[in-house]
């Protein structure tokens, strides 16, 4: 049975956005919403995870959990989903440290 999915992308290749728009609608830049079967959802997510590159992506879909949905992520993100006694909570990680290669006299 088809169900609603939301896929949020950041800095992904244009061809991936094109592939996603075949099955979903891009309601705002990088946010794709659609109603697809579980099989299509899983195939789409496999394509996203393989081609996300340096970008990041998040999939939200219905699931038999306390919250009623499940999250999947691909790529490097500062917000990391964590399971906490059956609830999915978001943990913020620190900002990436930038090496300062300048030298001062």
Q: Can you give me a brief rundown of this structure?
A:
The protein is an alpha+beta fold. It is 21% helix and 42% strand.
Strand content of the residues, in percent? 35-45%
End-to-end CA span: 67 Å
Computed over alpha carbons, the radius of gyration is: 16 Å
Largest sheet: 5 strands, antiparallel
User: Judging from the principal axes of the Cα atoms, what is the shape?
Assistant: flat
Question: Please, could you describe this protein's structure?
Answer:
By secondary structure, the protein is α+β, with helices and mostly antiparallel strands. It has two helices and seven strands; from the N terminus they run βαββαββββ. The chain has helices at 14-21, 38-51; strands at 3-10, 25-28, 31-36, 56-62, 69-75, 79-84, 87-92. It has a five-stranded antiparallel β-sheet with strand order 2-3-1-4-5, with helices on one face. A hairpin with a 2-residue loop joins β6 (79-84) and β7 (87-92). It is flat and about 35 Å long. The termini are far apart. The mean pLDDT is 89.
Brief descriptors of the model:
single chain, 105 residues, alpha+beta, 5-stranded antiparallel sheet, two-stranded antiparallel ribbon, 2 helices
